[in-house]
Amino acid sequence: MSRAFAICLPNVYLRALYFQTMGNLHSLGINGFTKLNDSAPKTEWVIVHEPLKRVLRFTGRSIDDVVNSPIVKNEVLGYFKLQKFITRGMEIVELENQWNAVG
Questions:
Q1: Which residue of 30, 59, 70, 90 pairs with 25 in a disulfide if CB–CB is 3.0 to 4.6 A?
Q2: Taking a C-beta distance cutoff of 8 angstroms, is the pair 58, 79 a contact?
């Protein structure tokens, strides 16, 4: 066996092995025994926040009162801003607790 043939043989063998394994779909994780997951999708719950309705219930006002009276409009706007400020503060504290968890 010549030296050139001995050097080329592993390269040819590896090249053939590479194309043989990449030629089928097993390298992608697809084979005849793969079962597709037919389970139902996970349920996701969406919580709808309605801060304006919450503020209107708290103040005992209706949307008509807000539209017709500038005094009521300023009152509801003040409570709305207060509610938004408190909610953002609570979210910031929750995120800081998650990021800086002790233990």
A1: 30
A2: yes
- Show the tokens assigned to 78: 């003040």
Spatial CA neighbour of 52 closest among 74, 84, 92: 84
CA-based nearest residue to 58, from 37, 42, 72: 72
- The tokens for 24 are 């089928």
The secondary structure of 50-73, three-state, reads CHHHHHHHHHCCCHHHHHHCHHHH
CA-CA distance, 79 to 29, in Å (whole number)? 57
Q: What is the pLDDT of residues 6-45, one digit of tens each?
A: 444 455 555 555 555 555 666 565 655 555 556 667 777 7
pTM for the model: 0.50
CB 69 within 8 A of CB 76: no
